Amino acid sequence: MIINQAHMQGIYKTFSTIFKNAFDSVAAMYTLIAMTVPSTGRSVDYKWLGEFPQMKEWLGDRVVKDLSAFSYTITNKSFESTIGVDRDDIDDDQIGVYTPMIQGLAQAAKEHPDILVWALLAAGFTTLCYDGQYFIDEDHPVNGASVSNDGGGSGNPWFLMDLSRPIKPIILQTRKSPQFVALDQPGDHENFMRKKFLYGVDDRKNVGYGLWQLVYGSKDTLSEANYITGRSAMMALKRDDGDGNTPLGIKPTHLIVGGTNESAGKEIVEKQNASGGESNIWYNSTKLVVVPWLA
């Protein structure tokens, strides 16, 4: 094949189509627990998370909550992945051998938010959220008291979540969507010095924590007793205003586990009958989700 601008444009178009088709075919799991927030700048401050959306009777002036005590900023990061195509392979019309690599770029780009989101969730026991406490912690300040969404333990984590609301436990902040790019002109430096044409994908994004109230995390054994404890803790959460006696209305909808807790999770929420033959009262009480990015 004669290497000129027209032929290289044709190769780019072919690779771009392969990339798009592969990207669109990859299913994402992060959308279950993460809300996507577009960003127009370098960072975004999410101090509004300090006000859990609630209605109250309007008596006199509106009650405006002071959010000056909260500051939670997510700063965008740049990410990329790049492959090199040998000029000799193009010269010998062997570009088909790179199809799996282009598809791999697409899969890596599509799965990267999953990697970030689920890693952030797993790190919630030791990473701060908007109220200055760990996302999963024993000491979240609510109405002057300490409230826990942490089940303790030291094993592999599992999580109960209320995913019925517009606000989610995790934020995926996007500044630039994945873009297929190339350095593939005959006169480019990489071709001249190394006889390589470069193809890649890049984007800008980052992840952070949403509302801790929507999550109960535990590293203790996933047992029926601990499952009940987690459900009770979530449903007992109160509003952080007024007399502090009004429930938030949180109810877990999903049980999130990694592979090591899959069997225990199935035992609790997917078996219709308990081991003794009696009905399992927790059957379908939450939806079990097994996440390959969790231990």
What do you see in this structure?
It is a single chain. By secondary structure, the protein is α/β, with parallel strands linked by helices. It has a five-stranded mixed beta sheet with strand order 7-11-8-12-13, covered by helices on one side. Strands 1-9-10-4 form a four-stranded mixed beta sheet. Strands 2-3 form a two-stranded antiparallel ribbon. It has helices at 5-25, 87-91, 99-122, 189-194, 224-235, 262-269; strands at residues 34-38, 43-45, 73-75, 77-86, 140-142, 145-147, 150-153, 158-161, 170-183, 196-209, 215-219, 254-257, 287-290. The protein is elongated, with a radius of gyration of 24 Å. The protein has a domain at 28-53 and 69-79 and 113-176 and 206-290.
Strand proportion:
25-35%
End-to-end distance? 49 Å
Count up the helices.
6
Shape: elongated
Low-confidence segments: none
Beta-strand segment tally: 13
> Can you write the helix and strand succession as a string?
HEEEEHHEEEEEHEEHEHE
Helix content: 25-40%
Indicate the structural class: alpha/beta
Q: Specify the biggest β-sheet.
A: 5 strands, mixed
Quick overview of this protein structure:
The protein is an alpha/beta fold. Helix content is 26%, strand content 26%.
Protein traits:
295 residues; alpha/beta; 5-stranded mixed β-sheet; 13 strands
